[in-house]
Design a protein that fits this description.
By secondary structure, this protein is α+β, with helices and mostly antiparallel strands. It has 2 domains: 206 residues, no CATH class; 116 residues, Arc Repressor Mutant, subunit A (Orthogonal Bundle), CATH 1.10.10.60. 39% of the residues lie in helices and 17% in strands. The protein is built from 13 helices and 12 strands. Strands 1, 2, 3, 5, 8, 11 and 12 form a 7-stranded antiparallel sheet that branches. A 5-stranded mixed sheet has the order 7-6-9-4-10. Helix 7 crosses helix 8. The longest helix has 19 residues. The protein starts with a strand and ends with a helix.
Length: 333
């Protein structure tokens, strides 16, 4: 593993509006930077620092940041170091972007088996200086935002996901990162604006398949009743929730909770849960090698048959067929 690193201070970056959640993105404020570029030689695997330590390292004074890894060349896997996804590898190839919204500790590695090393053993602490060497394979950045979308308590987003842009978007990602890396020595503002624009585009792609994004989902994250209810559903999608049980966890009546869901997200709590389960299932099918049955269990189905029927209703095709068109070759080869 041969890392080269460079750091820069963050400045505010304003996101442009997008078709998905346009008013939300128009208000969002992010600051961040590209903080690491690295070339890893097979075999390799490393474990990141824990979330608070990473945040304090790249943005002193912070306890949580959003992390992203742009795969410039090659392929790799990533998994959370702790939590419900522990041990599940999500694969990414050149042009893909790994997003870790809450900066959780994670492990990354290449195609060949390797002993996992702590990133602290080969990455020098800041202040970083320019390192020589060829163009890197992985470009890493961070972003910070106080919006509830990035609140680790709400967990509105999956703790780790891989975005597979189409070719046009992938070309934009590669060109933007290359430009930022070339310009960072003379134009630090570019390396703060581009990470924000990059995350905006990756979120737009990712959220295009999430439930209720055009019907007030962002507003629900700020609602005193729905925000804690959504946090419960997002934390335990596999649980056999009832409206009464969910209402009890946030100390409101069933009728009030149901009314708030219908008003802000356009569907009942149970319908929202079903849609969220399909969203998570799609992520797992597209980026892991879990069996269909294992994915079914992860999102609350006791049988593969019931899950397959629900998934086909939601996505128009069976899980195996849907996966076959999306799973990177690295995960099945």
């Amino acid at each position: 593993m041969t890392p080269g690193a460079s750091g820069t201070t963050g400045t505010a970056a304003r996101l442009a509006a997008t078709p998905v959640g346009a008013p939300f993105f128009d208000r969002l404020r992010l600051d961040g930077a590209i903080f690491l570029r690295a070339e890893y030689s097979e075999p390799w695997a490393y474990e990141s620092l824990d979330g608070p330590t990473t945040a304090a390292t790249v943005r002193p004074g912070s306890r949580q940041v959003t992390l992203f890894h742009v795969i410039a060349t090659g392929r790799c896997w990533v998994r959370l170091a702790n939590g419900p996804d522990d041990g599940e590898r999500h694969w990414a190839s050149a042009g893909d972007v790994i997003v870790i919204p809450y900066g959780d500790q994670h492990v990354m590695g290449g195609a060949e088996p390797a002993e996992v090393a702590s990133i602290a053993t080969f990455m020098e602490p800041p202040p970083w200086t320019e390192a020589g060497g060829a163009r890197t394979d992985v470009v890493c950045g961070y972003l910070h935002c106080d919006d509830p979308l990035f609140d680790p308590e709400l967990r509105a987003l999956a703790p780790l996901f891989v975005v597979h842009p189409d070719e046009a978007a992938a070309q934009w990602v590669r060109a933007s990162i290359a430009y930022a890396m070339q310009a960072q020595a003379t134009s630090p503002a570019i390396t703060t604006r581009l990470p924000a624009l990059l995350l905006e585009e990756m979120l737009r792609i990712h959220l295009a398949s999430a439930p209720a994004v055009d019907q007030g989902w962002f507003a629900a994250l700020r609602d005193p009743v729905l925000a804690p209810a959504l946090a419960r559903l997002h934390a335990e999608p596999e649980r056999k929730w009832t409206v009464a049980e969910l209402a009890g966890t946030v100390a409101v009546s069933r009728s009030l909770l149901d009314a708030r869901f219908r008003q802000l997200v356009g569907r009942s709590p149970i319908r929202y849960l079903a849609d969220w389960r399909m969203h998570i299932a799609g992520e797992l099918l597209a980026t892991t090698d879990l069996s269909v049955f294992a994915v079914a269990r992860r999102v609350g189905y006791d049988s593969e048959e019931a899950f397959s029927r629900a998934f086909k209703r939601a996505r128009g095709e069976a899980p195996s067929a849907w996966r076959g068109r999306r799973l990177p070759e690295a995960a099945v080869g």
